[in-house]
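Quick board copy: two proteins, each given as sequence then tokens.
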Amino acid sequence: MSLYKDASLVMIPSAYKDGKLYSIRPTDGDGDFTFSRGSNLAATRVDVNGLIEKGRENRLLQSNTFSNAAWSKTNASVTSGQGGYDGSSDAWLLTKTAASGRVFQNLSASGVLTYSVYMKANASTWGLIQVDGSPNDAYVYVDLSIGVLGSVSSHNITESLEDVGNGWYRVSLSLNDTATRVRIYPAETNSASATSGSIYIQDAQLEAGLVATDYIETTSSTAQAGILEDMPRLDYSGGASCPALLLEPQRSNLITQSEHFADSSWTKLGSGTASTAIVTSNYAISPEGLQNASRLQCDLNGGTTISDQSLIYDTITGSGDTSAFIYVKSNTGSNQNFYLANTLNDRITAVATTEWKKFDLNWDAVGNGRSLSIGSRGTTGSDDTIDLLIWGAQVEAASYPTSYIPTYGASVTRSQDLTTADTSSFYTDSSSGTLFTELSFPLAADGNYNGWFFWNSTSYNRIVLQRRGDTGRGQVEVRINNTTQASIISSSAITLEDNHKMIVRWDGNEFTFFIDGVTIGSDTSTDTYSGTDLNELASRPTYNAAII
């Protein structure tokens, strides 16, 4: 007897593409899962390197075809076939014929954005990139002969210059605004007024976020990379060597700026004897592997009363069960005690270590606003002075948190992971069978009996392997529903968040349930199945578990 050869469906999270997770049995595609998560890039996962992976998008058109009509030219011309920073002949010579000669592209984008261009000196030794914003423009001049930044706009969040070799630099700036146009100029010392000059340019990109990421080529439409809109999320959380398929309900991050803590949506407080909290953007490497973590400095100045507060907080409209988290790391090389709380003073005194850690906070805030505060406060056990790195704040209207949803100026909703596997073409006799899976369940209960279904979606014909979400007792049950919905085999307490191998076996009206090789129970039901009564493998719409 071979478990693999006898199986009608074998699903091991491995081969996938946007919108599809492939089964390894059957091999004709009938057992593949399809995913439809919507049109945004809100989903994330922990990748094989332990880094949080997002979806990314270059919002420019014809990102390295500056001769295309998508790029307008004013007092300037472009010549292709130039030697590029990457060893190719894909760079362009941008030559101006009058003052302020430039290429530019009109567009519409808003929120926290980063604009980047690769540049090299030629007849002109300076360059200028600019984003026309509403209401403010952002820009940065750069001396390409020695690789230093020149004049910058006060409306930039940050700006940077990366030496990529052979005289080439990647110049970037970030802003928080509504962008209407991006520009590239040959320039002089903090000016573009000369009537002649030229520089080499290549690979322009405009993207959401605080830093420039790996370049994404575009043509007649924008292009994406990373976690795409409908991509299955194979998650390596906890340092796992084997991925789990992450399936989650629809959720919204109510924090409007999950990484840009210097934004005014985050109040910087200093009360009593305490100094106002200080935030420095793009200070260190984040759990994403990019230099977009912020530094948070707080000082109580010896204050010991509850009114002595040095912290930042963001308040969100709403009420009801709430969960929140934020990633924190010590910036001193030693452990630090800090204050983490909501408006109800439901708080914890947490310990930041020299490694990144996600700190969770859950509360029942019926009739009160939702908020998240972090810093130092007298009488709470937090250190008088703290120096932390912070990244990835999230507040959800739910009793337990889900995976990170990045935001850059507005609340973002990640649609639920919709998964189905139509088994009707290869599983035509429901009278007997075995359902095997390896699952892990979250700690928090949400009252929705999260589960994994083998069913017929048009009737009550179903075998449900579900966590008892109404009680949070750490139990798993098999619910065998046909017409009576009455037969249940329930486990004793299991360890939540750990992986558990589970089997349901049935033959006619006899059912047996196993967890981790131990028989949990048997049941002789009044219900039986036949034909295609069980023809689809799917998750409950509010399912939140990992399938290994």
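And the next:
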Amino acid sequence: MKYLCVHCDKTFEHDDEDEKPRCPKCLRVNGLEPVGTKKKDGEASERPPWLTWAVAGGVLVAAGIGYAVWAGQSADNVSGEAPLAPLDRSAVLGYLRARGVDARELEALLVPDDAVEDWADEVAGDASGAGAKAEAIQEAIRACAEAGAFERWSFGVPRDTPVAPPARVLERLGEDDAMHHLYPIEVAALMASALRAEDVTAMVADVVRFPGDRRPPDPSGEFGYYVVAVYPGDSVEGDPTYYDPYGGREVQPEEARVLSDLQAIGAALSTRALYLLSRESEPERAMEASGQAVRLDGRSPSNRAVRGAILIAAGQANEAIEELESAKQLRPDAPRRNLLAMVHMARQDLDAASREVTAALEESPDFGPGHATLAAIHMARGEADQGRTELEEAERIDPQWHQLPQLWAMYYATTGDLDRAVERAQQAVERNPDIQTRLMAARIYRQAARYDLMRREAHAVLERTPSQRAAEMREMIRRMLGPTALEPVDEELASADEELGEGAEGDELGLGDPDSLRLESDLLGDEAGDGTSLGGGRGGPSLLGDDE
């Protein structure tokens, strides 16, 4: 039988009648809904004579319930831009529908529900005044963080569950030692909606920088770093006080941008787009969600950067660079420069990449991803020692940055330490199991004669490839990894000698075959026709490029 998990939108099969179904993604047993079954061959199709009348009556009841639900969620007739003020649900729905945006459960991102109202009353009900209530709610969230409910993490790739509304975030805050990877937008939305339940005027704000920081608050340049702006009166007037429930900073940001409710929803939709691209391998849905995010907030550099990443994955190089340039114009900070540097590197323009990343590191010296990109540039130029120095610096600053295992794998492969290269390639796939990372790992496994591992990655790449491009991907895999790359994994021992005997051509490919750049580029729609590899991964340069 097929079930849908309402928590993470995962559809899965479960046929064991003696065991309760459990979502294979989020492992929940509650909130699972059957989505229909097909009749088995030979199963009787007769319906009881009373069923027609029951169905007819049920339709009328369902119609009545549906109308009641729709009436309760009706949208206001609105026009123009959404005001910079807290909106109720019907106003939010009106503005979303006017823009053709289906935010689903995120449409109530800042509208407190019963669970949030009860929690807000519990932790801040006795406080007096907007500031005291804000401090109480922030302290409650930070206490959960100190108990291990969530932790700070590198935002390089989205987590394996979709962005959640406040009520679900609140559930996760109650799980001590769970070490959830929450997004700043989720935590800020929870705090803002809780304050609104206490009649405090609170808005979500996007932080540009904090005073004295040597690194940007959001190193990815795509997820954003969000806090809560609290106003003393009933309207959004005057200078707000900012609260940082995610990181607990006590200083006021040096620069921040207060968002309307629709812009905050756009930030959440942008994160949803990254999840759909990287975790669900659904580029079409990712493109749709990203387009909705840009419609809600076209001046968000994070939304533009995400749009650029999705266009890169779709092979639309020119459009992607336009979006990343727009993001840089909106906010010429270190993360935006680094994103452009990675695209320049993927296009083999190492001088342009070096200029961007150098400017990024001048602005933010402790910017780990910038040091990682500079390491990749050095390695592409054959400067292994300088590459290692930058890798060590990047790892010192941000040991969890998702590209580090990839880059270390390449470093060890180019210096001949294949055992350590294989170890790092395995770590890279565990940290970021996208197509490009798996292809990089497969080539290292081939170079190290680990053909069983190579085939596992080849099959995994094919499984994550959209069906309309599967035939092209098969051809690319065979040309990159050899004609036996897609044989069943359990045949690797029988074919090992054959792989080794295919001649030096396979091993000479190593990590630097220029044809692989053109293959990957053609597969993913390189419009420039220059052999550029822009596809296969997200948020980084092609690591399949020419080492020589």
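Board note added afterward: The radius of gyration is 26 Å.
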